[in-house]
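We now fix the convention by which a protein and its fold are recorded. Here is one such record, which you should read through line by line:

>
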Amino acid sequence: MNINFNGSATDITEVSFNGSTDVTAIDLNGTVVWQKYPSAQAIAAGLYTSFNTWIRGDAGSVSAAPGGRSEYSNTTDFRYTATHTQTFSGYNISESAPLDLSPNQTAVFIQYGSDSGADINTLKVNGSGITETDSVNSTQGSVAVGHTSVALESITNTGATFVGSTGNTSDFVHSMVLPGKWDVTSVTSAATLIPGDILIFAGQGGGDSYDANTMPNAWLSGTNVTLVFERQRWWYERAVCGIWCNKTASNVTASFSAPITGIMVRLRHIGV
């Protein structure tokens, strides 16, 4: 809600009553006239619950919903393909307040497997370009983010260009939408997650077969570090992706030692 002060509209992000900032809504004669934007913790909980609508892309279709929380398969995507531009269509997000109130959203793009060019670029939301605000890149996996003012429930598609490999190995891609503004930071071996923080691993390595010990949740540990989503695909080499979050109100510690090469990044909420 905006308040007009000397002719200028000022966005209200917090309301204090008797010194408390825990006011989440203002009701005027039975009508809700203001609601607080979602916290990072609420967004992480929303991602855990709604990952099948906030995330697009799975083996064989970049516009498919992920399906199960944990999956593995012998399959291939984008082999012999150096650069490919993808549109992740099919977004149809429906959330109740406060998750649908943020004036800005973040589009997250993930690539894992043969990421030879170590780059994700030309980010788009609903067909229009957005600025890449942060990224972490490697030849086994990359994560890039950009911000948009398109309302969460008005996002129908996202897009990006991925640099893969001309060889007979695969790379796999996902798109994820988060309410609010988020940044990306590389982390190694252990990470303290404040409420709402999200971890993403993207990597490649190992043999041409399933390995239970390579599934992301097998080698990451931490009380109340919650698995959102994990994938293991193999085509001559394994390609692996994992997403976790802290949906509690306290700091938690994630410890990990990945058996394959890749990147682990932390997404942190930096604003509405």
Q: What stands out?
A: The CA atoms of residues 102 and 264 lie 27 Å apart. Residues 40-271 form one domain.
